[in-house]
Sequence to fold (502 residues):
Amino acid sequence: MVFKLFSKDHINYLLTGYFFFLEVLALAHLLSPVIGSLVPSSIPNTPFHISFTKGKGNQKQSIIDYEFTSHDIVCVIIALVIGIWYLFQKHWIANNLFGVAFAVNGVELLHLNNIVTGLILLSGLFVYDVFWVFGTNVMVTVAKSFDAPIKLIFPQDILVNGFNATNFAMLGLGDIVIPGIFIALLLRFDNSLKRKSRTYFYTSLIAYFLGLMLTIMVMHVFRHAQPALLYLVPACSGAPLLIALIKGDIKALFAYVFSFALYEFRPQIQYSLWVFKMILRLICSYQDNPDEKKASKKNKDQAIANKEQQSTKESKKKDAKKAK
Amino acid sequence: MSEPIEAAVQQAAENVTETLTGSKIPATPEGAAVAYSSLIIMAMLPIFFGALRSVKHQTDQKVSESNNQTQRHVNRSEFCLHVTWLITLSTSFISLHCHQCYCDFVFYLWYFQLHRLLGKSWNEWTLEMPWCSQLSHQVRSTYLNNMSNLLFLIEVNFYCSCFVRIVRGFQAVLKGSH
Fold:
């Protein structure tokens, strides 16, 4: 019922709003140590703690448990201002600020726990990227038409047109975050060796740099959009493995397991995932409604699945009402 | 009045050349060099600082590390979750080129294996995962145990169809523009 009231524009607004929310959180998280070190110590840093719990005694569950300081509020305000700038102007500087914020947060918060998982992930995405860029035109279309900071862009005619330049070179965030989490894993491995040198980290970082250079050169020569992971994956995974073979660390490298507390409460990630799920539902139930009807079995199956989904949603709502 | 129209025409011409050649024609060699070098810098910095900050997380978390036995189990179930998502995404993409039934078969095989791998039902397994437990808490509390397996499968199937449709939507947009 609700979906008939909304047009496609409304859903675009919803997506924009969702990304706005994420951007502001990411940028505020990125800024908070910077601002904390910039502000003179004479200005007091007041801590706050929001806590919202359910139940009593042993059954106490915390629904919201969030600590922040007055510096964090300043960060959120700065991020909000930049976010509004991006909303109205879609300027490339704001886009890059948010892109970098997303990338730093991604590399920081996504943890791989061992080398084998990392290699599987990298090689899987390697195949994906190559297939989607060379096999189809989907990736290029998505990169050019999707209106959210999922890429870094920089104008090529900045020397001529200044800050209003329009001819952009772009790099997807996936090409940064995915090798990035592997490089972060190598840094943790370096730390676990306790040699006070970051051999593998710097090796893979230099390999990443060379891989990017190669991507750009190939793109320049062939004048065709290139899947950056095609060059980055062999560089980032090959160079550390080679160094490990030479130095004889290969066994230690494959045996290394990074363990971390999984039960840690990360409200930002959880809530943002939940919102993303809801938006996906909205988009898809919107796409069901238009009059185009194709009498194929596939569509029927999906319709059945969606009906069941909706019925579960309704019963969920009922239950929620009952609980109240 | 004429200026914006001219700009629009210029933009359209640029777009046409872009789609024809598949890449942008750089304004000048210097401009391209500046653009690409700053892109490289913007790519390297997040990796460097993100990696350093992730180490900070690690040292914070070492204090709260639990015992080894549960840790291994959690690692295993975490790995299964990753692979599940990987299969979900890949089959959704592959179903653009193959028939859906092959993808459903792959799904079936994976869930069959998963059941043996974890030695327990989805219901118990999702209880351990932080985001699953958060998301499906209501479902679990309201439905019986045997229902939630089915529900989860429907949910996964639903995500699959979502991705397919979004990608098809982009393709449709692309076809419409030509």
About this structure: Chain A has 13 helices and four strands.
